[in-house]
Amino acid sequence: MRQYRRCFPAYAAILALLPFAACGGPGSSSKGTGGKLGAGGKLSTGGKLETGGTETESGGSPSGGGGASGAAGEAGSGGSSAAGTGPEGGSAGSSGAPDAGAPGAVPGPSCAGLPETCGPNADQNCCASTIIPGGSFLRNNGASGQYSAFISAYRLDVYEVTIGRFKQFLDGYENHLPKPGSGSNPSNGNDPGWRVDWDASLVSYEEMTAGIAACQQTVPAYASHDDDLLPMSCLTWFEAYAFCIWDGGRLPTNAEWNFAAAGGDEQRVYPWSNPPHSEDIDPSYAVYYQSEDPNAMPRPEDVGSKSPKGDARWGQADMSGNVWEWNQDWYTELPAFCINCAALNGQQIRTMVGGSYYGDGENLLSSSRLYHDPKSRDFVLGVRCARPR
User: Rounded to whole angstroms, how far apart are CA atoms 126 and 137?
Assistant: First the structure.
């Protein structure tokens, strides 16, 4: 497929190593003085980049991953792992029809006082989450090798973090910073959570809001910051992680995100593919760039705008398209097999997934995985939070 992603596929290997996301032309996220989220200040990459953690590690076991989220079944079985029924989760029924996941948990503070206006009918809680029941699957749908993994049950937000939710984080930002060890994956005993030496990579309120405004101002939909239902973008990896911790969650691992996007053992081509091998894709499923006009300026859309048609197996909207999403992992080679694992040791680049409104359909595959400098901002890069079951 033709690439229209002025910032990622063609030059990602080079751009991801730069101190800023130096996208070419109108896509530069290190320039501009557009819309205002807060007081001015200088955009800073903030702090020293640390590799942190241990080598790629499996955590827990197929029977429960440290006792936090026990999904039945055996790793490597290739079968579905049922995590119960009713409010405790569920898996595809005997008819093979996908279920809608479990009801949402108690919303995090990012939705406190906000109206329930997310989704296609503008009547859903923007902090809704469902249980991903867990099980075994092939990462990247086996496209780049037979990399298998087992995932214990966990919760994943239905929607990408919105501008409205992130504004709640900014209100009292200095009191919302993560504590050491917070945000770890309870199914991975090797996950150290937030590291104290990452504090230096969280810039001041003034620097962050000025940097976000400068990054977003090139996209008309973001320039005035007046649509609280648009996906939040221009977050560094550290800010995305800090937000999710404050909101009662964490960053999903790449294996967890890939499992949810592929529908687990269904191995869906796209998150919405039903039957799983279906390659049907058009603008009714996802927000992506399809114009043949090189001067056209694509725009994001409110989260959940393609729901339910574009939803993943367990109800997640915009798993592909709208904005790329940060994962916890460093971008490294995949292990041949792992249990509740994450790449906790790396060098310069973190994993991002899902494609965006600024890329073409090739980046929307459930196996999509690219990378970015964790200290950089980009107007097509946001986040979705994972949560304990």
Answer: 29
Q: Which residue has the tokens 């033709």?
A: 2
> What is the C-alpha to C-alpha distance for residues 185 and 137, in angstroms, rounded to an integer?
19
206, burial (CB in 10 Å: exposed 0-12, middle 13-18, buried 19+): middle
The yes-or-no verdict on residue 34 having pLDDT over 50 is no
Query: What pairing do the DSSP bridges indicate for beta strands 135-138 and 148-151?
Result: antiparallel
Two tokens, residue 64: 């429960």
DSSP state letter for 188: -
Other CB atoms within a 10 A radius of the CB of residue 39 amount to 11
Among 240, 217, 221, 239, smallest CA distance to 230 is for 221
Q: Which residues pair with 387 in a beta bridge?
A: 155
363 band by pLDDT with thresholds 50, 70 and 90:
very high
**Whole-prediction pTM value?**
0.78
Q: State in Å, rounded, how far the first CA of the chain is from the last one.
A: 38
Cα–Cα distance list, 217 to 34, 52, 140, 257 (Å): 4, 33, 34, 29
What are the CA-CA distances from residue 274 to residues 56, 136, 257, 268, 280 (Å)?
33, 19, 19, 8, 9
Is-contact 230 302, C-beta < 8 A?
Answer: yes
Both tokens of 312, joined, read 């993943």
Percent of the chain past pLDDT 70, that is, above it, reads 72
For the record, the structure tokens of 308 come out as 């339910």
